[in-house]
Design a protein that fits this description.
133 residues; mainly alpha; 7 helices; 80% helix
């Protein structure tokens, strides 16, 4: 029987992964809103494509239990950049989206942060094995 910690972990993983994956179509297809965002940031087209690749990798890693923590770290870092961009250059609301993209970034950031807390023992084990030599 699954523990409540396991169930919560899977819910957090799926929410973060689904949010990141659903945005990939817009980034990779060059949708008007994505092009606008990355043009405003001075990162079009490579920032848009690169961010999409990073989000895809993070989403895949979130689903793989052994590297969930690494996916969460990558996702949290990416969403930190997105949140920072919204707060400094883009604004909370982008092209009359009602703040939806900003909200998705915050939710993903929170899910990834919670996963890092849940996975902290795995992170400590990795760090001790890596740096104990």
């Amino acid at each position: 029987m699954a523990t409540s910690k396991t169930v919560i972990s899977w819910i957090l993983r799926l929410v973060a992964a689904v949010i990141m994956v659903q945005s990939l179509f817009f980034k990779f297809s060059g949708a008007e809103e994505s092009v606008y965002i990355f043009s405003t940031l001075g990162l079009e087209p490579w920032g848009r494509i690169g961010t999409g690749v990073v989000e895809l990798v993070a989403a895949i890693m979130l689903i793989i239990p052994r590297v969930t923590w690494l996916g969460a770290l990558l996702g949290m870092g990416t969403m930190t950049g997105a949140i920072f961009s919204h707060l400094t250059k883009l604004g909370i609301e982008v092209k009359a989206d009602g703040g939806q993209l900003f909200l998705y970034a915050v939710v993903t950031w929170l899910c990834c942060g919670a996963l890092l807390l849940i996975e902290r023992q795995r992170i400590k084990t990795f760090l001790s094995l890596t740096f104990s030599k």
